[in-house]
Amino acid sequence: MSYLGPPRPRVFGHRGAAALAPENTLPSFALAAQLGADFLELDVHGTSDGTVIVLHDETVDRTTSGTGIAREMAWREVERLDAGHWFRFGSRDDSFPFRGQGVRIPTLDEVLRAFPAHRFNIEIKQAAPPIVDEVLALLRRAGATARALLAAEDDAIMASIRAAAGAEIVTGSSVGDVMAFFAHLDAGTLPEYQPPGVALQIPTRIHDRVLVDESSVAAAHDKGLEIHVWTINELEEMERLLDLGVDGIMSDQPGLLARAIARRY
Fold this sequence. Notes:
This protein has a single domain, classed as Phosphatidylinositol (PI) phosphodiesterase (TIM Barrel, Alpha-Beta Barrel). Helix content is 32%, strand content 17%. The chain has helices at residues 26-34, 75-78, 108-114, 132-141, 155-165, 175-187, 214-222, 235-244, 254-264, and strands spanning 10-14, 39-46, 52-54, 119-124, 148-151, 170-171, 199-202, 205-206, 209-210, 226-229, 248-251. Strands 1, 2, 3, 4, 5, 6, 7, 10 and 11 form a nine-stranded mixed β-sheet that branches.
């Protein structure tokens, strides 16, 4: 199995189907899979006793019924939290359909084993204490190294990933990787550039700088890089990016994206 095996453009369920179910939870990933996402995007941190959990923020405050910094909490504390507590569907103040329904923060191991046919885009968020080695161990034990891409915005975390994984697991791009690509693009020195990963995973723009346009897509493809764009939830923007030839889109609405792709290909 090759991580980049499924046909392009690729549908990434961003934190599952985060517009429709509590982000980074088993129900959210299951819904994303049902709606057509071949790739499940998720984030990981570690607990104080070394359990790798699927969580975007360093604290549990925004997405659960609890409070605290995840890395300072034991797994037994984390697993008791209601991860559907704050998810609101629609505009009603009392519309919390997942509250009290047993939704919890999953472990990475649980997610890997629950979706044996899916590919994973795993962003390692935690720098200290490091969790790279444990993430790699979990992927190996689950037989999932060929269906995972490891990502990190932080340059130091990405360096640790590449040092530990070598060629065993593909990687995305850190902030420094993205800056290096665009510095070469602007300077006209792309022939000298050697991509350290397989994909630029970027927003459409940062402040006044447009990152995704015809020139950047063509340049990335010329260097053998894919462009995966996050986080796109509007149909018109999905269609514009598909017309530019991007290789994948990360969306909280993977069903909408899958339908947009089906109409074009």
